[in-house]
Amino acid sequence: MSIQVAGIAGIPLIKTGDSIAEILCEKTAFEDGDIVCIASTIVSKANGYLRALKDIEPSEDAVRISGLTKEDPRFIQGILDSSKDIIIEYPFILSEVPCGHVGVRAGVDNSNVEGENIIILPKDPMGDAAKLREQIKAICGKDVGVIITDTCGRAFRRGQCGTAIGWAGMTAIRDFRGDHDLFGLELEITEEAVVDEIAAFSNFIMGESNAGIPAVKFSGCGSWTGHDNLYFTKEEDFIRKAIHI
Ligand code: GDP
Ligand code: MN
Ligand code: MN
After folding, report:
1. How far apart are CA 205 and CA 21, in angstroms?
2. Which of 95, 107, 128, 136 could bridge 121 with an S-S bond, Cβ 3.0-4.6 Å?
3. pLDDT tens digit string along 145-175?
4. How many Cα neighbours within 13 Å face the side chain of 49?
5. Which of 14, 121, 115 minimizes the C-alpha distance to 78?
């Protein structure tokens, strides 16, 4: 397998209402089978998922938690509003957002945003990925997989990685169960989270600061079979059961 990876250059600062699909098709030539990773930050900007801190009224809970984390209570309120379930409050908020993703501060960010605003994660990243895929097909006629990414911390290891929060045109997981290893042993457990692997490498190209590269194109990834059950159910998730407060 030989894969080509390229950051898509020349993308402007994204504003509410911009068509990301149109901008991408203007800046790069897609081929059938390409995969494009798009930073959630610009999907949120295009959707208008920005909140001005001055308009946020912190609740008692937000004030209490901000006393612990020493963060702006309005920022904390933005995180609480974006969360479906709070797993950890301190030393950082870890929560589940409505799409099933679990992240620190619910993925709420104040970097790469203009002014005193916070940016919240796309509310329906699976739907956004599907729409972007359809729009790209309509504009340039090519069948392109789409992965919406966010930079996330990880349990057990230092350092953040790109993670897939929405995808379309591929399954999240490549399922190796039932396959045989080099010595004929049947694999019973191995499911590979391919969308996260691709998201992580795209994040390496995007960087975290001022590179201005919010989209990365992969050519030559081929295809795989599997399923989309990327998130553990609460019953399956033993780590979450162990830490739930
Ligand atoms: P996140 O990982 O989705 O939270 O996004 P980041 O804030 O880490 O940004 C990822 C990449 O996109 C970095 O290279 C940023 O400089 C770039 N970026 C963020 N917003 C914009 C934008 O509106 N336009 C352009 N061209 N680049 C952006
Ligand atoms: Mn982010
Ligand atoms: Mn990032």
Report:
1. 20
2. 107
3. 999 999 999 999 999 999 999 999 999 999 8
4. 23
5. 121
Look up tokens 């399956």; give the residue.
236
Q: Which residues line ligand 1 (CB under 6 A)?
A: 11, 13-14, 39-42, 45, 109, 111-112, 150-151, 206-208, 210-214
Distance 126 CA to ligand 2 centre (A): 16
- Tokens 């509310």 belong to which residue? 123
User: pTM of the full predicted structure?
Assistant: 0.96
What is the rounded CA–CA span in Å between residue 100 and residue 85? 10
Taking CA atoms only, the protein residue closest to ligand 1 atom 27 is 212
Ligand closest to CA 209: 1
> From the CA of 59, how far away is ligand 1's center (Å)?
30
Options 3.40.225.10, 3.30.1330.100, 3.40.640.10, 3.30.450.20; CATH of 1-49+124-245: 3.30.1330.100
